[in-house]
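Retry 2 of 3 after timeout on previous attempt. Resubmitting structure tokens to design endpoint.
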């Protein structure tokens, strides 16, 4: 692996991002829990049909965002593990060095831009 990457800087950036995403995920979990409690009236019966539909959509959106945050945390944790293992910045597909510009934009990237483009084309 090339020594041109400042691994300490990437580790700090990933750690900071992990804390931010974990905090946001926790807020989403609390919001989802609260919105589910608030979605029924005092007698336990759902309110107006339109209100129920809106609340369901909101809950689905919150759950999707929670799921996305979970995937982000896993990607960040994997990147931190690659730093520890000495494989950070190496494309998992072709083994070439991932460009510094790509890692700056997406510090948890696992593929070089060429392999990612090929993957997206299917």
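Retry 2 succeeded. Sequence:
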């Amino acid at each position: 692996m090339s020594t041109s990457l400042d691994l300490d800087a990437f580790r700090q950036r990933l750690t900071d991002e992990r804390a931010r995403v974990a905090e946001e995920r926790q807020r989403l979990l609390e919001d989802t829990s609260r919105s589910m409690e608030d979605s029924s009236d005092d007698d336990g019966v759902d309110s107006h049909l339109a209100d129920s539909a809106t609340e369901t959509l909101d809950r689905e959106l919150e759950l999707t965002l929670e799921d996305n945050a979970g995937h982000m945390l896993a990607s960040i944790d994997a990147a931190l593990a690659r730093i520890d293992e000495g494989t950070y910045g190496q494309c998992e597909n072709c083994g070439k060095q991932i460009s510094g510009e790509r890692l700056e934009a997406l510090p948890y990237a696992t593929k070089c831009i060429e392999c990612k483009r090929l993957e997206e084309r299917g």
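Attempt log closed. DSSP finds four helices and no strands in the chain.
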